[in-house]
Design goal:
Helix content is about 30%, strand content about 15%. By secondary structure, the chain is an alpha+beta fold. The chain folds into two domains: about 110 residues, Phosphorylase Kinase, domain 1; about 170 residues, Transferase(Phosphotransferase), domain 1. The strands form four sheets. A five-stranded antiparallel beta sheet has the order 1-2-3-7-6. A hairpin with a 2-residue loop joins β4 and β5. The protein is globular. The N and C termini lie far apart (about 45 Å).
């Protein structure tokens, strides 16, 4: 049974992974219900009225370090049309009034529709029209280009970390695994397996350079958006072991012949782009061929 604070609507869990939880609390809204709060909190566990309401969660020292680092990424990126709004770092003395101040949460803008990955998986048989999908891919690439122009490697580039707003507007989020390009590990790239290059050397992810891996992953995201399906199938369709086997055997997702971004996707997978800005320009040119979506 859910904890009482969730049952009565004081706390709403929006998303959760092994490393963090995103939640809303009623005190941030005007209705007395967490579901109506206009912002969310991200942290190692849930805090409510100054106490760890649904603990134990992550160690507070580890949470403090991780959240301060992600906050620094948001601060480097600044306000941007395609980056989730960052509203501040929540800090306080969490172990009593005499303890040192720790970061316990990031306050972030709330998406009304959740992650693009969940939208795709939930409507895989009824995708939006082709022009809307190109529009989404263009926004996604513009967000990535802003990251790169700000000197940041995303590291976990995925439609899982793109949130949908009204009128098919996207904003990128979750920069816990991001870092400055000059300090991002040269022997690691932390994206999900289905965004990795297939081949006999899988999972060796560092042999082609970090930025090339990031651009390859961008090709996977554009593929997912335009094809409106997850590369290699959803978790319900393919087990983790089968996915690893497919990658290690060099299997590639099939790009449909009528995919309007096919050449862009293949060019990314062949490491033929020099920057994400070039990808934005090519998607912009493609977007201009449609009349029903604004070419922003």
């Amino acid at each position: 049974m859910a904890p009482l604070l969730i049952q009565i609507g004081k706390i709403q869990i929006v998303g959760q992974t092994a490393n963090s939880v995103v939640y809303a609390v009623e005190s941030d809204g005007k209705t007395g219900l967490a579901k109506d709060a206009p912002c969310v909190l991200k942290g190692g566990t849930v805090w409510y009225e100054g106490r760890q309401a649904l603990g134990p969660g992550k160690d507070i020292d580890e949470t403090d370090e991780v959240l301060r680092k992600e906050a620094s990424i948001y601060e480097t990126l600044g306000p941007h049309e395609y980056i989730l709004g960052y509203l501040g770092l929540e800090t306080g003395a969490v172990d009593g009034p005499d303890s040192a101040s720790k970061a316990w949460g990031l306050r972030l803008e709330r998406s009304p529709h959740g992650s693009l990955r969940n939208i795709i998986m939930g409507a895989s048989t009824s995708p939006p029209d082709q022009s809307t999908r190109v529009f989404l891919a263009h926004q996604f690439a513009k967000g990535v280009a802003h990251l790169h122009q700000s000197g940041i490697i995303w590291g976990d580039l995925s439609t899982r970390n793109a949130l949908l707003f009204d009128e098919w507007r996207l904003k990128l989020c979750d920069f816990a695994d991001s870092d400055r390009e000059d300090v991002y590990p040269s022997n690691w790239y932390g994206c999900e397996d289905r965004y990795c290059p297939p081949g006999s050397d899988y999972p060796q992810r560092h042999t082609i350079g970090t930025m090339k891996r990031e651009l390859f992953a961008l090709g996977r995201a554009i593929y997912e958006i335009l094809e409106w399906k997850v590369p290699y199938g959803s978790r319900a369709e393919i087990s983790d072991d089968d996915l690893v086997q497919a990658l290690s055997q060099g299997e590639w997702p099939e790009v449909s012949g009528d995919n309007p971004a096919k050449e862009i996707i293949l060019k990314l997978w062949r490491y033929l782009y020099g920057s994400s800005r070039e990808v934005v320009d090519d998607l912009h040119s493609l977007l201009l061929s449609y009349k029903t979506i604004p070419a922003n």
